[in-house]
Amino acid sequence: MVERTEKVWLNGELVAFDRADVSILTHTLHYGLGVFEGIRAYESPAGGAVFRLREHVERLLRSGRVVEIEIPFGTEELERAVLDTLRANRMSEGYIRPIAYLGEGAMGLLPADNPVEVAIAVWPWGAYLGDEGLERGIRAKVSSYTRHHPNISMTQSKTCGNYVNSILAKREVTRLGYDEAIMLDPNGMVAEASGENVFLVRKGQLKTPPLGSVLDGITRDSIVQIARDKGIEVVEQSFTRDELYIADEAFLTGTAAEVTPIREVDDRVIGSGTRGPVTRTLQSTYFDAVRGKERKYEHWLTKV
Ligand code: PPE
Fold first, then answer.
1. Which pTM does this prediction carry?
2. How wide is the angle at C-alpha 33 spanned by C-alphas 215 and 31, nearest 5°?
3. Counting Cβ atoms within 10 Å, is residue 113 exposed (0-12), middle (13-18) or buried (19+)?
4. Residues 13-23 as b or e (16 or more Cβ within 10 Å = b)
5. Is 207 a catalytic residue?
6. pLDDT at residue 112, as a whole number
7. Of ligand 1's atoms, which has the minimum distance to the CA of residue 220?
8. Phi, psi for residue 124 in degrees, rounded to 5
9. CB-ligand 1 contact for 147 (6 Å cutoff)
10. Residues of the chain with pLDDT under 70
11. Whose CA is nearest to atom 10 of ligand 1?
């Protein structure tokens, strides 16, 4: 179970965790139309810092725009709120979960005047796919569930309801003994994992599916920048599941999962069956960047 912290930010105020309750008629609870973010803060030599706070807050606002949830706070207010929530809980490292949801008002599928509520919770969260996963890599399986078609549920918004599809996929493959689900888009091309973007490495080149059926991941973007800075060629190009089978290396990226190597897909060993050299380099630079140990990427950090 996730560890409860003392305070939650709710609609502009820090309140005790137990007082941050919602009504049973919360519209989002019934129909899934809400938007959320996942952000991490890390301990750095200069104290706690949030990784790419501005980009996460902006994506939250964009998510709202896509599904017509008008968030009644601006970028700077939300940035301040994230920092205040961490401080109120005396946390310099951890996971941050802002959520904007439709509160109590109308029921039914036309939530015209339901209030838009905004909450920010934080909690300590270790390696999402395990410490061993970060080091040795995880075993993935292609799910029988297809990832969203943009005309069914749009993919550029982190909409709460989108994650039903992710949960079905994740449950399916973990029940079979795998660590993570890889999902194909409606055309059968690799899209993303249940909550991470996917990359492969082949002949020194890095490849990740283009935006369309995948979320514009902030870790994905960070890895693309880090790779290009290192002179590694990066292409955003669709690929099939079998291209993944014959990759030299593969890995997942996400705020929660960070940079997690994939050592097997559908029981095919990827490359050497462990974390490959390109993955290792990118992962290690990523961890240095988030922990304030890479000068070049210090602009990605906001001090708590
Ligand atoms: N795709 C999906 C579907 C997704 O949910 C995430 C984040 C990503 C890609 C990677 O995006 P980014 O975090 O900006 O690099 N998934 C969040 C939710 C995890 C959860 O279990 O909750 C996350 O990583 O915070």
1. 0.98
2. 130
3. exposed
4. ebbeeeebeee
5. no
6. 85
7. 15
8. -70, 135
9. no
10. none
11. 254
